[in-house]
């Protein structure tokens, strides 16, 4: 069995913490058994390790998420990077073709697809393993996992099964109902309907044959070249709703889609994350603060107060899911990003009438990690080391740096830094186009840098 984890989307449903660079699955707001904060993707990757599924898993993602995935769960995870952002059908098609033409997986192999941000118990993954048997026993083209509803939700899609007349552990699917009203949801539950949690399985042959019928290339390099021309459509609409033989395996354990502040705070063990205070007059109110200044919350009930460099949200929890629509026209660059080497936070951005820009960042590099050896055509930089020590390379010369050092990097000057201890510095960029794309990378690893540069 091969597991395809979908990690996509730009995500503003958890604004201001989630943005174009940091989707909800990367927010470190869940507390693990040791009391440390972890993200949804860290939690699920740890669970996959516990049930011995990591080695058979690949993560389908976009280029903008590669750094943060590697920062949070390591560089050894197998990533499949979409050349262009599309919906779930193109992403799953690309993964299937990769397994078929690059990994040369057997056409009889069962592929299980699931989102990377599901909040589930470990027992859920044991249920996934049963999908292989469901496909064989039912002779279905697709096998789904459906969650037994705990209340008549209007936010989820429902899988409506045919009545079961035998002792088999699965149902045959009759039809699907998308986000019904509460009254309709209650009637669906009476019909043994299940929540659609976005988990499904197919044999690789089924998917490859379907792609051939649709005229989609089944050789990986060719599909990459044509990927931009694929329609942006969900797997549900393109495949599931057009498939006649579908089985569903019920799951009665814990499952939650932490896609809104309301559902996420239900799983947070502490009502406060970050600097500040939620006083005793508050009821069912949570504070999440990523700023370096304290936030005090008083007298609010059933509210979320979230603050980050991207903005501040104060909302009653039951309406917090509308934030995505409210902020859709707020066009600002992400003010905080995690990278494979650490993180950065934008402190200030100023643009003058003549087009000159000044951008100030606080950058953290984790011990043992390094920024690539790079240069910029559109900007100069000044770095002031404020914490830790490291090794700096400037135009092929390497030397030690520490707190208090000021490093000047003119336009088109090659440079890189490696942290010996956790390292922080203030970066001031000056130029006419201060964009992340203005980076020419020469070497990625410090080993390459030391091989081609000299100590002074």
Mean pLDDT: 93
Q: Main sheet? A: 6 strands, antiparallel
Strand content: 25-35%
Biggest sheet, strands in spatial order? 20-21-22-29-24-27
Number of domains: 3
* Class per helix and strand makeup: alpha/beta
Please work out how many helical segments DSSP would assign: 12
Annotated CATH topology of the largest domain: Spore Coat Polysaccharide Biosynthesis Protein SpsA, Chain A
- Taking all Cα atoms into account, the compactness measure Rg is 24 Å
Low-pLDDT runs of 5+ residues are none
Reading off the top of the CATH hierarchy, the class of the largest domain is best stated as Alpha Beta
CATH superfamily of the largest domain: Spore Coat Polysaccharide Biosynthesis Protein SpsA, Chain A
Shape: globular
Domain Nucleotidyl transferase: 4-268
GO biological process, one term: GDP-mannose biosynthetic process
GO molecular function: mannose-1-phosphate guanylyltransferase (GTP) activity
Pfam family, one: MannoseP_isomer
């Amino acid at each position: 069995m091969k597991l395809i984890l979908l990690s996509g989307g730009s995500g503003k449903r958890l604004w201001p913490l989630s943005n174009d660079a940091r989707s909800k699955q990367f927010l470190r707001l869940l507390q693990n058994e040791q009391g440390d904060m972890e993200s949804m993707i860290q939690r699920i990757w740890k669970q996959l390790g516990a049930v011995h599924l990591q080695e058979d898993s690949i993560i389908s993602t976009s280029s903008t998420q590669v750094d943060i995935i590697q920062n949070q769960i390591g560089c050894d995870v197998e990533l499949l990077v979409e050349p262009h952002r599309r919906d779930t059908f193109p992403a799953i098609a690309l993964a299937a073709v990769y397994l078929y033409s690059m990994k040369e997986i057997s056409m009889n192999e069962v592929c299980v697809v699931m989102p990377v941000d599901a909040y589930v118990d470990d027992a859920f993954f044991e249920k996934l393993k049963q999908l292989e048997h469901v496909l064989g026993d039912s002779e279905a083209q697709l096998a789904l996992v459906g969650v037994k509803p705990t209340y008549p939700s209007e936010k989820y899609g429902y899988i409506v099964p045919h009545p079961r007349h035998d002792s088999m552990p699965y149902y045959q699917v009759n039809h699907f109902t998308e986000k019904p009203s509460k009254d309709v949801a209650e009637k669906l539950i009476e019909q043994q309907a299940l929540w659609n949690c976005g988990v499904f399985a197919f044999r690789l042959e089924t998917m490859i044959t379907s792609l051939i019928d649709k005229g989609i290339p089944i050789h990986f390099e060719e599909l990459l070249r044509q990927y931009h021309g694929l329609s942006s459509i969900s797997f549900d609409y393109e495949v599931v709703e057009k498939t006649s033989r579908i089985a569903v395996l019920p799951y009665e354990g814990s499952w939650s889609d932490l896609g809104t502040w309301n559902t996420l705070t239900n799983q947070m063990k502490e009502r406060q994350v970050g600097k500040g205070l939620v006083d005793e007059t508050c009821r069912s109110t949570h504070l999440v603060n990523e700023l370096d200044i304290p936030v005090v919350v008083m007298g609010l009930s059933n509210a979320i107060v979230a603050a980050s460099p991207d903005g501040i949200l104060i909302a009653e929890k039951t309406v917090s899911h509308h934030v995505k629509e409210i902020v859709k026209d707020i066009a600002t660059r992400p003010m905080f990003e995690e990278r494979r080497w650490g993180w950065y936070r934008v402190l200030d951005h100023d643009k003058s009438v003549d087009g000159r820009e000044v951008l100030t960042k606080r950058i953290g590099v984790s011990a043992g990690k390094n920024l690539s050896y790079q240069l910029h055509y559109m900007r100069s930089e000044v770095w002031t080391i404020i914490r830790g020590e490291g090794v700096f390379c400037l135009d092929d010369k390497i030397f030690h740096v520490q707190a208090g050092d000021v490093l000047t990097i003119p336009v088109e000057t090659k440079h890189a830094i490696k942290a010996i201890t956790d390292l922080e510095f203030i970066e001031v960029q000056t130029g006419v186009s201060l964009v992340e794309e203005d980076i020419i990378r020469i070497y990625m690893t410090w080993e390459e840098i030391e091989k081609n540069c000299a100590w002074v």
